[in-house]
Amino acid sequence: MHNFAVTALLYSSRYVRKIFGLRPHPGGQLYSELELAKAPDFDAKFVDFSLEGKTVLEIGCGYGGYIAHARRQKKALFVYAYEPDALRVETTNEYLAQAGVDGFKIYCGDARRMTEISDGQIDVVFSDAVLEHIAGTELLLNEIFRVLRPGGVAYHSWSPPWFHWNGGHLRKYIPIPWAHALFSDAVILDVLARQKESGEIAGYKIDEMMGCYSTLAKLSLRKFRLSVQNSRFGKGDIIHSHSNPVKGLIARLSQVTEEMFAGDVRVILRKAAD
Q1: Across residues 13-31, what is the average pLDDT?
Q2: How far apart are CA 91 and CA 220, in angstroms?
Q3: What is the per-residue pLDDT across 221-267, written as a single tens digit (0 to 9) for each?
Q4: CA distance 103 to 125
Q5: In what order do the strands lie in the sheet with 78-83?
Q6: pTM exceeds 0.90
Q7: Where do the H-state alpha helices sit in 73-220?
Q8: Residue range(s) defining the domain that contains residue 172
Q9: Do 199 and 243 lie in a common domain?
Q10: Among 33, 86, 106, 185, which residue carries the largest CB count within 10 Å?
Q11: Pairing between β-strand 237-241 and β-strand 264-270 as defined by DSSP bridges
Q12: In Å, what is the CA distance from 257 to each residue of 60, 182, 221?
């Protein structure tokens, strides 16, 4: 049954990718520069997002593009960051040094246990496309609450929820809606491995996708809302937007359709002032 599922998904994915011209981004430009170019898109998601003169913390800094943006364009006083991938931390430090960016410190570690950050040390916490990759959302939120100063704010953007048709982040690799929910993780990873073996998708892109998929926390909107309610924040502003108005309308019909078609999830969590 496993082999049949892998073969069916492999060939159907190949056909759909060909019909719609779906291909992973080939790269070529430094990931740091790609992140830097996209940084204003994150800013635009939140009306009151200001970092000027503030001590800030980024959860999951990737290759440092937003750190450069925060220091140069957003005028942040100092940027702390947590990134679990040691190679990324090394690459990011090299990139930022070469770019002449200062006023930052990246810790290689688990953001659910930010032992290097003191209570109430941070003015603003933010993350982009990270929360869906961290298991134990409530633990993370409680740690964010701890490091925020009274009156501090956390801004997060993540997508898509697990039960979204593309909840597995697989659209350009296995473009079959809800494939991640219909097939086991073993099937999905085997399909990706065979795509790498066949050479139909560049091996390094498959390696990235397998890493991405393996870290997904299978975070649904319902699970996330419960985590916020059970955390020390207790409540927050949680909205989702959609560039496609039809899908946006469908997402608002019920809790089920919301999980299946919700767009970008935007979250604002505030720590009450003393």
Answers
A1: 81
A2: 32
A3: 999 999 999 999 999 999 988 778 888 889 889 999 999 999 899 99
A4: 16
A5: 104-108, 78-83, 55-59, 122-128, 148-158, 264-270, 237-241
A6: yes
A7: 86-98, 137-147, 179-182, 185-198, 203-214
A8: 2-27+168-214
A9: no
A10: 106
A11: antiparallel
A12: 29, 17, 11
